[in-house]
Design goal:
about 425 residues, eight-stranded mixed β-sheet, about 25% helix
Length: about 425
């Protein structure tokens, strides 16, 4: 993996991207000449190798928005739009990550280069006059703090009732299918888990977290978001499912950050079982300090330690060096304070239900030792370590395969994963 100050994905997508509701403080849209010439809806794709990423762009006289349906990004506003016929440049900033489209209008087509985190891919857009299609699927809704939350239901064939598992996605803007809107392409890992569960007679419910995808409107501002909000949402879903006659036992599967959210919610809502997949086995400050140590000079590490110490006491840091703003900016500190209150080992130890802990030897974000720590903390839990399984639950043999697996929905789940889950649940 490339080493930059983005830390590891486990932490960066939790901290940098805790909220993706579209509330930004970027520079105002720059009005350019001849915007009327491109005003309207355009459709096309970013040409990710082996997996084109469909996108929709809406240009208006004073700006526009970007939608990437497969990654849950809808109507996200551009920071700037500059059109000097034929040259066209537009960009957006999603919680610290800048996405840039640099192209030109030619023969009623917009084409050029898309750049994100140092990677560049071609993109192409053509006018779209078709109406937006309604999303297919089986969905249910519940009321949560701030409004209505929607989830997708995967049901086995037959009349039921069925046992059900609530699937909680990982860090940052990761949608219910396991795809991050900050990464090119999709892997569909959690969607595959849901489909495999259904094939084995187990229903599942998976939802986009607040601020993502279907539940983007629940995101609110970054400064107001708390880790407890995610826990409350998960607990509300468990309570709803337990009251629904269509389901019998109700358990939780938590992936990555969803593991800690899930184990706390399982205790609060009295879930019937809990499965952790690629979940951290240490408090997040330990994980964060480990990742920062590999990238920061000693003076900045000392500052980071001091900030973490303050946050663990429930105090916000008044001053933060520019180099550490992406991690400890004032607006994200309240979220971190709420997050640091939870120790995964203590939370899993409190569960008095069947527990399965799963880790993969090829996971570059959460080492197997974290799964072993969680297992040790819960003496009666089951431990499943899967050889060559990476963080998105696919089998890989080297670093190249690991990176490509994050954007390959055709790559199946690691062979032992669903076998182990189904055996545990049945």
């Amino acid at each position: 993996m490339k080493k930059t100050l983005r830390l590891g994905t486990l932490v960066v997508l939790m901290i940098l991207l805790t909220s993706c509701s579209g509330n930004t403080e970027d520079a105002p849209i720059e009005e350019a000449s001849s915007m009327q010439k491109i005003t309207g809806t355009w459709k096309g794709s970013i040409q990710i190798p082996n997996q084109p990423l469909p996108i929709f762009v809406e240009f208006e006289k004073d700006g526009g928005t970007l939608s990437i349906p497969v990654q849950g990004l809808r109507d996200f506003p551009f920071s700037t739009v500059e059109f000097n016929d034929p040259a066209l440049v537009f960009d957006l900033n999603i919680q610290g990550q800048r996405l840039v489209f640099d192209g030109k209008l030619e023969d009623d087509k917009i084409s050029g280069d898309f750049t994100q985190q140092g990677q560049t891919f071609p993109f192409e857009l053509t006018p779209d006059t078709a109406e937006e299609t309604v999303e297919d699927g089986d969905f249910m809704e519940i009321e949560v703090a701030g409004g209505t939350m929607k989830a997708e239901v995967e049901r086995p064939e037959g009349k039921g009732p069925f046992p059900a598992m609530l699937i909680i996605a990982g860090s940052g803007p990761t949608d219910r299918d396991g795809n991050s809107m900050m990464l090119p392409g999709k892997n569909d890992s959690l969607k595959m888990v849901a489909e495999e569960l259904a094939a084995n007679g187990i229903a599942s419910i998976r939802y986009d977290k607040r601020g993502v995808g279907m539940n983007q409107a629940l995101g609110g501002s970054e400064a107001d978001l708390r880790f407890d909000d995610y826990i409350a949402d998960a607990a509300a879903w468990v309570e709803h499912l337990k009251s629904d006659d269509a389901f019998t036992e109700v358990g939780i599967i938590g992936h990555s950050e969803g593991s800690l959210i899930g184990m706390v919610a399982a205790d609060q809502a009295s879930a019937d079982s809990f499965i952790s997949i690629a979940g951290a086995g240490r408090p997040i400050d330990e994980v964060l300090m480990e990742q920062l140590a590999a990238q920061l000079a000693e003076n900045l590490m000392n500052e980071a330690r001091q900030i973490i110490s303050q946050l663990k006491k429930g105090e916000q840091a008044a001053t933060v060096s520019p180099e550490l703003q992406s991690v400890f900016r004032p607006s994200v500190q309240p979220y971190m304070i709420s997050w640091l209150a939870y120790d995964p080992q203590k939370e899993v130890a409190a569960l008095e239900i069947p527990v399965l802990i799963i880790g993969g030897t090829a996971d570059s974000q959460v080492p197997v030792s974290d799964a072993e720590s969680l297992h040790a903390a819960h003496s009666e839990s089951k431990l499943l370590i899967i050889d060559d399984m990476n963080h998105v639950l696919k089998t890989v043999s080297d670093e190249s395969e690991n990176e490509s697996a994050y954007s390959n929905p055709d790559l199946p789940l690691a062979g032992e994963l669903m076998k182990g889950i189904v055996e545990f649940l049945k």
